[in-house]
Each structure stands twice: as C-alpha cells, then as structure tokens.
Inverse folding.
C-alpha cells in the first residue's frame, strides 16, 4: 500500500464535539438502516469525532462478517487456478496415453502368444481380485484365436483397471510370476463384483429415518401417542374417557423441521435466549456465540424457562415445546384440562424444577403442572 | 392555536389507520400499551428525526421503517409493565451481560457496566415523582439489541473518560507520560502552502473517505475493523486506501503547483519527515494521539469513586 504522507495524516481534520451522535442513529448506522443522506451526515461527523468512532467500533456485533465483494474478474480465470488446471490436464493426458499404450502392448503380446501356443493346449489360471471373483485365463484354440483376441483386449482393459484399484490383484499377479501381459478373462457370464455391488447398495440406499423410532424415544409414560387426542392410559375412548387433569399431549416427531441442531456437548448446560423475532437461540460458550435452534418450524416464541439440559419454550397460539437434552430433540406439549385446551398466546413460562411449572397466556390464563407437563390444571 | 408540522399531520384522519396497523404489528396491547401511548411514541420519534414540514407519505414510510415491536416493548417497560419486563429480561438480560463482557473485557468492569445500565433501563431515578427509564429514549430506528450495545459502549467511553483524569501517578510514570523525554524535537518552519494544499485536498474528499483515513491513520484500526463498520470486504478497504493515497498525492501536488511551487519542490515538500516539522498545536490538542485508545485500557474504578 502506498504510504500516505505523514503530513497528510497529521492534517486530517479533527474536532472536539460536545454533542455526539444519538445511540439510535449509531445503531441504525451500524445496522445499515439509515438513508443515504443521513448516512453521509453520520460519516461526516465520524470523520472528525474520535469518541463517536470508538463507540461505533464497540457497537459492532461480534459475529458480523464482512460482506464479500463482487470480484471484477471471475476467480476461475485467475492464474493460480489456471496453473493447477493446466497441470491436471497434463496428468490426464499422460495417464490416458500410458493406459492406451499398455493396452496396445498387452493386446499385441497376447495375440503373439496365442499364435505361438499349441492349438489343442488349454491353460487356465486363476487370480484373485479384491472382489474375490475368480478370473480365469483362457488361451483359445486357433479357431477361436481372433475372437479371443478381441475378448482379451476388452477384458484386459477391465482387469487392468481392477488391478490398478486393488493391490491384491497386483500381488496375485506377481506371485504367479506371470507378466501382466497374461491378461485374465472374467468368467462368463461375468457376475458383478460382490464387494463393489455391496458397496454400491450400501452407498445408494440411505438409511431410512422412521419417525416412529424417534417417537418411541420420546415416549413419556402416560402420554398419548396420537397427536391432539385426549386419551387415558387404560385405552378408554377418547371422547368419554377424558378426565380432569389428564393431558392432551402431542408426541414428538423429532420436531426439528428437517434441520437438526448441533448435538449438545455432553453434560454442558447451554444458555438460552429469544431473539427479537421470537427465534430460539442457544449458546454453549457463555454467550460468545449463538446458534438458532429450529423448533418444529416455529419461530415466534415469547417465553422460555431453562434449567440445565431442560428447556421449555412457549409461543403464539398455545405453542409449547419441551426438550430435556438441551434442544437436541423436542416434544410438543399441549396443556389441556376439563376438556379445555390451551390455545392462547403463551407469554410466560416458569419452571421451579424439572416437574413443577407454570404457563401464563396473553388471555391472563395460568396453567400449572406438577409432573413435567404430563398433566395440567388451569387456574 | 393551530398546530403545525408533524403533530397536525399525525392527527389527520389520513394517518389513523397506518398508526393502527403499526400498533397491531407492534403487539403493544399484550404489554398494556394503549394505542394512544403508541401513537404518542411514534409522533415523538418523527418529531425528533423528521423536519416539521415533512409530507405525510414520508412520515408514514419513516414509521414503517421503525422496529415497532421493540419500540412498543421498550415503551411498555419504561411505563413499568411487568409482563413487558419479563419479556425484556428473557430476551435481553443474558445478552446485556455478554455485550458488557465483550466491551469491557474484564469481568468485574463488565458486570458493573451491565448492572449500571440495567438500573438505568429499569428506572431507578425519579423525576417529578415519576420513574425515568432509559428505555423511554429508544426510538426503534435500529434493533433494541443494537441499541443496548451502543448505550453500553457510550457508558463505557464516558466512564473511561472520567477515570482517565484520575489515573494514578505510578501508572503515569510507568507509561512515561509524567516524565517525557528530555530532548525536544528540532523546530523547523513549515511552508504554509503545504498545509493549505493538504487541507484543501482533504476537504474535497467525501465523508466516507475521510472516515476511512481517520480510522486507519488516527485510530490505527485494522482494515478488517473498518470493513466491518462499512459492511464491505477487507480487500475493498485496502484498495480504497491505496487509491485514496495516490489521489491525495496528485491533488496535493496540483494544489502546491497552483500555489507557485514547481513539481520538484512540491514532491520534496511532501517527502519531508514530519519529525522536522513544527508541531501543529491545535491538532495535537484535539487528536490526543500520544495516549493509547481507551478501549485498550482496563476500566478500573478508583477507590472512593461512587458508582452511578
């Protein structure tokens, strides 16, 4: 960077202001919500007021990262990329040339040996590939020589590729003492290589995630498995069997909306907070960094209560969720009592311990539980 | 008496429904904030930032740009609504202490800073029998969290400025402030044309460019810090500083040429070592470049200093 003259640096205008920028204006400047004209006025003040510059610097959010600038030139046209690209192209060309050369040599030598040998003599060799399939070497009689040559040429290429991939194959070839020119043929009909097939199967078939298996993990004794249904533990009819204080609890379906939060460090209790837009946030480093925790696609929470790994959050329209593993898995809880279900906006959640809690709503309702949400009473 | 400006515009029937729309968006009702109180808050904010003759549409756009939900929460807290306070504590209490920790960099100072602000936010001071809460001054132009950060930073800066006058003699002698070097730099008369050309070139720069130069050369901020402030990439600031330095040099040389210097004389004048120049007394007094930035110093409360 060109060194700016010290004279210029010394002449940069400064002023001692008695009236400084409004905190709201500084906040709006930092968050880039000022209009252009106002932003320019703020910059004019900041250019001369050291104190306000210091406040702006301290007011910057910790985790804000600078915006990437649009490159004038696409990155892939840069010299470092071109250099490595050219090298890769050379490697590909050389590799292809070597492969073709070997194939040509192999096919020509095989053709020669097929012509030299006795037409009635058959030689069979086996070699192991990494897949465990048997590969047999056939030396065809003269009548089939030409056919064999073609087949050998094709097979040779396949086996060469297999040899390159597997050290075992090459070791086997070395042990037999045969030069690599004795190209083994796959036994016909050539079956797919079991290991590769297995690998393909394992790789291609994703392990199905069954909600039911997750739900089983979330079963809390006494809770209904069916969502939004009143039921008693003896399995009586929902309509007639509801009793005062029995819960209507929806089961968890790993209610993370398809995006899991990071696993909680074992035994470490996090800090929790709600952002201005009602999003739940969690921190494992005493608030230095925060991550947004998706909970069943909900984002409008108004209240939370946390103790150790236990966390309860409440939001609009009776949305109440509980996690006992620091937010890794969630259970939706729907308080109900005497046939009435909590549907108001939850604005307060308080748990004095794991079992005893109180939920307050915007409609000035108070719901109490003494068994960690399994049953509720409305006050 | 006719009322003018924003007040009369607000009370016009044309703006009633936008106010109600914003009121319902703010959810102020949940915190006991009446529509009238909400409208009063909006009028105060508009009066503070908009000219008196601002057209209705601009006022409406300005209100729509505010963080009305946070504004309603802040005003409800200032009015003492318990539910609002619970919501505020849930959302911001942890963050308040975390931000203080980041600003003050020392646990005890951070805790004191956060506790002091918390007391101001709650409104422990009374004026005319009414509780005065700092949250009443929040206008919703930025996020409430960002505002808390700025207010904490301001409090920290003010606190440091007060404490700087009470730094102990031992500390001063360690830093060499009390006992400056015995030899004074040689004084050389400066060509006033240089100062004039430099001042002229700097004055022509846009505000943003002067801000970048001041941040980099006076505050000794890093490129990354300046980039974060302006929401651009670090390399953008680097390139900008390069361009600025070259452009300034050109302008100064041109200015010196207009003031009768030859090209060679002008170049020599710019390359003169600043240590040989007479110190600009006025700029030294306001720049305070001898002392380190107060953010690098610990904010220690001297013994006997009453806390706010």
């Amino acid at each position: 960077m060109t060194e700016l003259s010290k004279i210029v640096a010394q002449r940069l205008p400064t002023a001692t202001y008695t009236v400084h920028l409004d905190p709201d204006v500084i906040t709006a400047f930092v968050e880039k919500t000022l209009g252009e004209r106002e932003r320019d006025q703020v910059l004019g003040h900041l250019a001369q007021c050291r104190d306000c510059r210091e406040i702006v610097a301290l007011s910057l959010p910790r985790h804000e990262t600078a915006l990437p600038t649009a490159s004038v030139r696409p990155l892939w046209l840069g010299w470092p990329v071109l250099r490595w690209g050219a090298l890769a192209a050379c490697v590909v060309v050389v590799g292809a040339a070597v492969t073709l050369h070997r194939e040509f040599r192999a096919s020509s030598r095989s053709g020669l040996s097929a012509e030299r040998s006795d037409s009635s003599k058959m030689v069979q060799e086996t070699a192991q590939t990494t897949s465990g399939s048997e590969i047999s070497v056939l030396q065809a009689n003269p009548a089939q020589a030409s056919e064999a040559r073609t087949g050998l040429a094709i097979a040779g290429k396949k086996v060469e590729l297999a040899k390159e991939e597997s050290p075992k194959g090459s070791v086997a070839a070395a042990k037999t003492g045969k030069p690599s020119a004795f190209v083994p043929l796959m036994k016909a009909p050539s079956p797919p290589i079991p290991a590769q097939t297995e690998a393909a199967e394992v790789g291609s078939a994703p392990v199905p995630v069954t909600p039911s298996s997750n739900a089983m993990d979330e079963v809390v004794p006494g809770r209904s498995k069916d969502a939004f249904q009143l039921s008693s533990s003896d399995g009586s009819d929902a309509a007639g069997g509801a009793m005062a204080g029995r819960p209507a609890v929806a089961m968890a379906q790993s209610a993370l909306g398809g995006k899991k939060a990071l696993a909680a460090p074992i035994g470490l209790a996090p800090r929790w907070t709600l952002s201005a837009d009602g999003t739940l946030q969690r921190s494992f480093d005493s608030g230095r960094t925060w991550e947004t925790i998706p909970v069943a696609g909900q984002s409008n929470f108004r209240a939370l209560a946390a103790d150790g790994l236990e966390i309860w959050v409440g939001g609009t329209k009776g949305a109440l969720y509980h996690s006992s593993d620091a937010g890794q898995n969630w259970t939706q809880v729907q308080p109900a009592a005497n046939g009435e279900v909590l549907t108001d906006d939850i604005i307060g959640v308080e748990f004095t311990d794991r079992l005893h809690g109180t939920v307050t709503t915007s409609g000035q309702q108070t719901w109490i539980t003494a068994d960690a949400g399994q049953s509720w009473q409305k006050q | 008496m006719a009322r003018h400006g924003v007040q009369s515009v607000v009370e016009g029937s044309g703006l009633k429904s936008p106010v109600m729309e914003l009121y319902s968006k703010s959810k102020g009702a949940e915190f006991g904030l009446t529509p009238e109180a909400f409208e009063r808050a909006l009028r105060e904010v508009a009066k503070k930032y908009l000219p008196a003759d601002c057209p209705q549409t601009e006022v409406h756009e300005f209100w729509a740009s505010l963080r009305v939900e946070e504004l309603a929460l802040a005003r409800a807290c200032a009015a003492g609504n318990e539910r609002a306070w619970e919501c505020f504590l849930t959302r911001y209490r942890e963050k308040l202490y975390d931000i203080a920790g980041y600003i003050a960099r020392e646990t005890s100072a951070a805790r004191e800073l956060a506790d002091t602000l918390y007391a101001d936010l709650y409104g422990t001071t009374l004026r005319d029998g009414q509780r005065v809460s700092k949250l009443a001054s929040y206008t919703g132009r930025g996020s409430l969290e960002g505002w808390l950060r700025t207010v904490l930073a301001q409090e920290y800066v003010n606190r440091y400025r007060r404490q700087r006058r009470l730094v102990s003699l031992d500390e001063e002698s360690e830093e060499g402030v009390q006992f400056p070097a015995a030899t004074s730099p040689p004084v050389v008369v400066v060509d006033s044309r240089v100062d004039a050309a430099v001042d002229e070139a700097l004055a022509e720069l846009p505000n943003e460019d002067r801000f970048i130069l001041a941040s980099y050369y006076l505050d000794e901020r890093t490129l990354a810090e300046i980039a974060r402030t302006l929401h651009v990439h670090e390399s953008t600031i680097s390139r900008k500083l390069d361009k600025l330095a070259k452009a300034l040099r050109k302008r100064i040389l041109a200015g010196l040429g207009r003031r009768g210097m030859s090209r060679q004389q002008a170049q020599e004048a710019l390359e003169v070592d600043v240590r040989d120049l007479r110190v600009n007394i006025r700029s030294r007094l306001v720049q305070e470049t001898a002392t380190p930035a107060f953010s690098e110093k610990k904010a220690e409360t001297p013994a006997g200093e009453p806390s706010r």
In short: Chain B touches chain A through 91 residues (CB under 8 Å). The longest strand of chain B covers residues 125-127. Chain B has three domains: 1-66, 86-177+300-308, 192-290. Confidence is low (pLDDT under 50) at residues 1-15, 273-282, 284-308 of chain B.
